Structures are given as C-alpha cells and as structure tokens.
Amino acid sequence: MELGPRKLRILSAIVETYIATGEPVGSKLVAGLLDGAASPATVRNEMAALFDQGLLEQPHTSAGRIPSHLGYRLYLDQLMEEKPLTGLEKQEIEALFNLRDPDPDRLLEDAARALADSTGCAVISTALTRESARVKKIELIPTASRTIVILLVASNGMVKNKLCRVDFLLTPRIVEFFQTFVNRHLSGRSINDISASYLNSVSFAAGEEYMDVFTPVLSAIYDLCRECSDGRIYRSGTSNLLEYEDLRRVANQLFRVINSREAVMDLIDRDEEGIRVFVGKENPNSAFADSSVIISKYRIGQDNTGAMGLIGPIRMDYARLIPHLVYFSHTLGRLLGQTLEEQK
To answer: Which of 165, 183, 210, 265 could form a disulfide with 206 if both were Cys (CB 3.0 to 4.6 A apart)?
Structure first.
C-alpha cells in the first residue's frame, strides 16, 4: 500500500497518540503534533482517506479515529522507531538474573515472572530441543524402599528428573539391573524417537518376568523424553490482562488458551527465528483477536532454541516492548547456554 509522506506522518501520530492515551484521536490534535505542517482541515481530509483505505477506524459517530489492525501493521513494518534500552534498563535486566538458580527450568520460570512484572503483560516462556538431541544416560536413584528418582541427561546438557513409585521392593540388584537395561536400549538414541510404541517393545525385551514391573519406570522415562523434546512452558502475569479495559471481557477465554500447551506451541512456530508480532486478528488463534502477541526466538548454545512471548492489548507500546523483550530473551538464552554447558 503506497502512501505519501504526509499520510504516513498522520498515521504514525495517530497510532502513537492512541497507544499513549487510549482515546480516539481528532484532526486538531494531529495537526498540532505535525507542528503546523498541515491545517486541521487538511489533516481531516487525509484521515478520511486513511479511513477509506482501512487503516483507521471510527469507534463512535462524532469521535476521532483509532488505528485499525491494518494500520498497526503498516506502522510496525514501516513507521515505528524502536526505543533503545538505556544503560540503566540493561543493568536492571542483568540484575534480575544475578541470583539465578542453576536449574534451567527454574531460570525459565523466574524469567517469565520477572518479565511479566516489568512489562505489565502476560508472559509465556519455553525452551525447545533440536531433533539432534539424544539420551546421554539415565540414572535410577532409590529414595525409599518403593520410590525412585529417574534422572535423564540429554546430549545437549538438558537434565530432567521425575519421582516414580513402584509396586515392588527396590533392592540394589534390581536397581542396577534396571539401570543397565534402560541405558542399553535408550542411551544414544534420539529423544524424539523414544515413542510409546518403542518403549512398549523395550518392555517386551525385558521378558515376561519384568514386563509389568518395568511399566511405571518406562512410563516415567517417556514423560521425561517428552519434556526434553517439547520443552516446558511457563506462564506468568496472566492476571495483568485484567488491568486492561480492552481485554476484561475476553480475559477468561485468553486464560484458557494461554494455559493450553497445544495453543501456545501453535503460536511459537519452531521454524521461525527472531521477533514476530501478531496484531489482533493476525493471530493464528481467534482467542487473541482483541490482543497482540510479541514472540522473540533466541539461541541456547548449539542445540536448543527458546522463545518468550508477551501478550497484551492491541495498543501496547511496541516501540518500547519489542527491544525490551529481545534484550531480555537473548540475555536469558546466554545464561541458559552457560548453565547447560556447565551441566555437560
């Protein structure tokens, strides 16, 4: 869509004023923002043309104009000037991680909470594992006579554990046999290849004597592999959405979708890297039609990627939040990479 310089300046002024105030913008106010470059009458005519092109909307008969979804998109793609983080803002983000827990899962969870607090948005945070990741080893650690911790270490440094209760007495001989058996069948195998059907075949290989007792252990190992493959998703700040009048009536629907793993993974496309912004109806899920989502993909060492997302009102301050999210997520990626490397 080709627009002249004046129309572009007027659209930019309307988007930024509406983001700041939440109120429809009139031609007189816009003319003042243009420092006398155009009269209110000229601005009014240009706004009418932008309205006809679908870039502006008129919420009420006598009100000013507000940006349409198409208007926001043009602003994001052509007009927006990002507000770089100040040195102090960068220091504040770095300080959030100074007392980080060495556990990657805890770091992801804390990061989601910190970003939600600093932006006033809802946040999703996850780490994704490449298909090349393999099982490095599995350890079985008895904690009681019928309780065992299963520890899975992946080739990319990711470590997962799960508590498992069994219906038999865990003697040292049985634990050693189980650990040797599962490592013989699983060590070195791609995590994505360890399916339920494959583990069923592994249980058959154990023989009829051990098939039933192996079931809870193999089931727990399957869950750990899925966690490594899919990544855990952490959510924080969903209650922040209630602070925005634009979102209160759809908040319950948003909460349900944000808590759905499938919906979140659809939003975080593994094949795309960098920053992406979905404005309103651009979102792949119709539940986000009245909100905007900013997704930042980042690297974690050589074998993993991560993603952080902000969910907020359509009139969010993109120029400030986009560089904030990018710096925050890349800082998190660097720290996660260091942590996973140390675990190797």
So the answer is: 210
Rounded distance, CA 28 to CA 16, Å? 15
Spatial separation of the C-alpha atoms in residues 186 and 261, rounded to whole Å: 27
DSSP 3-state of 1: coil
pLDDT band at 272 (very low <50, low <70, confident <90, very high): low
Mean model confidence pLDDT for the chain: 86
Counting every residue written for the chain, the total comes to 344
Window from 35-44, 176-185, 270-279 with minimum mean pLDDT: 270-279
Q: Which letter does DSSP use for residue 76 in this model?
A: I
Instruction: State the CB neighbour count (10 A cutoff) for residue 97.
Output: 17
pTM: 0.78
CB 99 within 8 A of CB 114: no
Tokens of 101: 């827990």
d(CA 330, CA 295): 12
The CA distance from 256 to 150, in Å, is 32
Judged by DSSP in three states, 277 sits in strand
Instruction: Give me the DSSP letters along 102-118.
Output: SSHHHHHHHHHHHHHHH
| Backbone dihedral angles phi then psi of residue 310, each to the nearest 5 degrees | -105, 135
Tokens 């989502």 correspond to 293
Nearest-angstrom CA–CA distance, 25 and 112: 34
